């Protein structure tokens, strides 16, 4: 009976330790991997919206202005 209780307690302790430490792994993953990827996505969104689309819109506006000026 004592051996069964001891083994059950050890197994329970291992499960509790694993569960307790899992919270640290989840927090680390959320903080560094998910947060890092989210930061990269925000930088990419800014770069695409402001720089790439800005250049495209700038070329379109310049060609429109050149067309209007050349028709005068």
Automatic annotation (TrEMBL):
It holds the Pfam family Proton_antipo_C. Gene3D superfamilies: 1.20.5.2700. Transmembrane segments: none annotated. InterPro entries: NADH_UbQ_OxRdtase_chlpt_su5_C. The keyword Plastid applies. GO terms for molecular function: quinone binding. Its main location: plastid. NDH is composed of at least 16 different subunits, 5 of which are encoded in the nucleus. NDH shuttles electrons from NAD(P)H:plastoquinone, via FMN and iron-sulfur (Fe-S) centers, to quinones in the photosynthetic chain and possibly in a chloroplast respiratory chain. The immediate electron acceptor for the enzyme in this species is believed to be plastoquinone. Couples the redox reaction to proton translocation, and thus conserves the redox energy in a proton gradient. Belongs to the complex I subunit 5 family. This is NAD(P)H-quinone oxidoreductase subunit 5, chloroplastic.
């Amino acid at each position: 009976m004592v051996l069964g209780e001891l083994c059950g307690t050890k197994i329970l302790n291992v499960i509790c330790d694993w569960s307790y430490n899992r919270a640290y792994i989840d927090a680390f993953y959320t903080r560094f991997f998910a947060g890092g990827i989210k930061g990269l996505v925000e930088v990419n969104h800014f770069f695409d919206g402001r720089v790439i689309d800005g250049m495209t819109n700038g070329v379109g506006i310049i060609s429109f202005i050149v067309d209007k000026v050349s028709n005068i």
